[in-house]
Amino acid sequence: MKWTINSERPVYRQLIEQIEGRIISGIYKSGEKLPSVRDLATEASVNPNTMQRALANLEQSGLVYSKRTSGRFITEDQKMIEGIKKEMALSEIKNFIEKMNKMGFDRQAIIALIQKEGVTNE
Question: What DSSP letter does each residue of 11-42 carry, written as one string?
């Protein structure tokens, strides 16, 4: 998964969201050790201090934890991971509905369009 950073929002917030996305999609697995701050910063092409801020925020939330001298790890709390996954999905749905409303679609028209197009999980 490629890192994408834009100038519209704070970089550390974007890093948090992308790390969360990597966790819920299984790229970073539960209990797995994260790469070092420097390695992640290099990979994302951001300042290490910015990456450190994002990781500190993820630690505060409990999604990531530190082991002294061993590094940072992904939580093993599956309920927390599923909760974040659901939050992110609901946010995407909300954004989608807002965009569709701006194009003139009401709730029923959106549902009808989705059903007509046979949107599936394939």
Answer: HHHHHHHHHHHHHHTTSSPTTPBPPPHHHHHH
pLDDT at 117 (0 to 100):
83
Return the pLDDT at 121.
54
Architecture of domain 11-74 in this structure:
Orthogonal Bundle (1.10)
Domain regions of the chain by residue span: 11-74, 78-117
Give 17's contacts (C-beta < 8 A, 6+ positions apart).
88
pLDDT of residue 122: 53
In 56-115, the DSSP E strands lie at: 64-67, 71-74
Specify which residues 74 forms β-bridges with.
64
Cβ atoms of 74 and 32 within 8 Å: the answer is yes
Q: Pick from 72, 118, 108, 89: which is nearest to 25 by CA?
A: 89
* pLDDT beneath 70, residues of the chain: 119-122
